[in-house]
Amino acid sequence: MSGKSQAKGKKRRANYPVLIGASRLKAAAGFTLIEVLIAMTLLSIMVVLLFSSLSICAKSWEQGESKIAEVNEAAVVYHFFQRHLSSAIPLWDDFTTRDGGYAASRPGAGAAAENKDKTFSFQGKKQSLQFVSVFPASARRTGMQLFSIETQQQDGEQHIKVTLTPFYPVAEGEEWHQEEVVLLKHINDFALAYFGVDDSGEGAWQDQWLEKDAQPRLVKISINTDNGIYWPDMIIALKVAGAGAETDTANGGVSSPDSN
Predict the structure, then answer these.
(1) Domain for residue 257, yes or no?
(2) Residue 135's pLDDT band (cuts 50, 70, 90)
(3) DSSP per residue over the chain, as a string?
(4) Do 209 and 122 touch, CB atoms closer than 8 A?
(5) pLDDT at 203 over 60
(6) Per-residue model confidence (pLDDT) at position 168
(7) Would 26 be classed as within a structural domain?
(8) Which residue of 98, 109, 158, 199 has the smallest Cβ count within 10 Å?
(9) Number of domains into which the chain is organized
(10) Does 258 map to a domain?
(11) Burial grade of 162 (CB within 10 A; 0-12, 13-18, 19 or more)
């Protein structure tokens, strides 16, 4: 090997560490613009997918909570009517007059049993109802209670209101302990119908049940709310229909009603 070739080889070996160091310095300098753009694009896609998933989960949670609330609301209303209306007690109010006073306190009225203004405890109209029922022994209110159910306007919305009043007169010097409770809010329509023997002696659905001496066999409750949720009609069978209704049923005067 000539001296010139040896000199070139030594020169290449001397420059080799410099080339390696330059390449390493170039690699450590950072990413290129294209690499940064690709990374940002991928990160943006991941963030969008993450927030979309969170939004879908939040909406599903809200819809589930709303559905549970709707089901619970319907269950509370149905349970109220099934528990109290089905066990309505047929009684005569023969100790108060139509104006709310006591029969025995009127001059010349005589005994309370002779009150000619007495009314039957069950009185039903198309959008209101009253009946007598009892609370369980564990409830705060004891004894027979007069349930009055009607619609009322409150804050520009229609509600179903329940008023509870002790059925029997209070002792002298005491006052009636009346309680009002809103059973259901945001009502669009509330209608009641009663199945029993009509004036012709046939069993049929009627819009009113007034001035009768027995309770109907069935009460149909129709409710429509402002949110458009479908409420199926509730048909409540009264456990104690009254002597008149039982006699007609025994004689075959009341046929099976159509629940539609």
Answers:
(1) no
(2) confident
(3) --HHHHHHHHHHHHHHHHHHHHHHHHHTT---HHHHHHHHHHHHHHHHHHHHHHHHHHHHHHHHHHHHHHHHHHHHHHHHIIIIITT----EE-SB-TTS-BGGGSTT--SGGG-TT-EES-EE-SSEEEEEEE--TTSSS-SEEEEEEEEEEETTEEEEEEEEEESSPPPTT-----EEEEEE-SEEEEEEEEEEE-TTS-EEEES-B-S-SS--SEEEEEEEETT----PPEEEE-S---HHHHHHHHTT-SPPPP--
(4) yes
(5) yes
(6) 79
(7) yes
(8) 199
(9) 2
(10) no
(11) middle
Mean pLDDT taken over the chain = 74
DSSP of 39-80, one letter per residue? HHHHHHHHHHHHHHHHHHHHHHHHHHHHHHHHHHHHHHHHHH
Cα–Cα distance measured from residue 130 to residue 219, given in angstroms and rounded to the nearest whole number: 12
User: What is the domain extent for residue 22?
Assistant: 3-62
User: pLDDT band at residue 123, thresholds of 50, 70 and 90?
Assistant: very high
Q: Both tokens of residue 247? A: 């006699």
**Residue 68 falls within a domain, yes or no?**
no
**132 against 227, higher pLDDT:** 132
d(CA 103, CA 112) in angstroms, rounded, equals 5
Q: Choose from 19-33, 66-80, 161-175 the range with maximum mean pLDDT.
A: 66-80
Domain boundary among 33, 62, 91: 62
Rounded Cα–Cα distance for residues 138 and 126 (Å)? 33
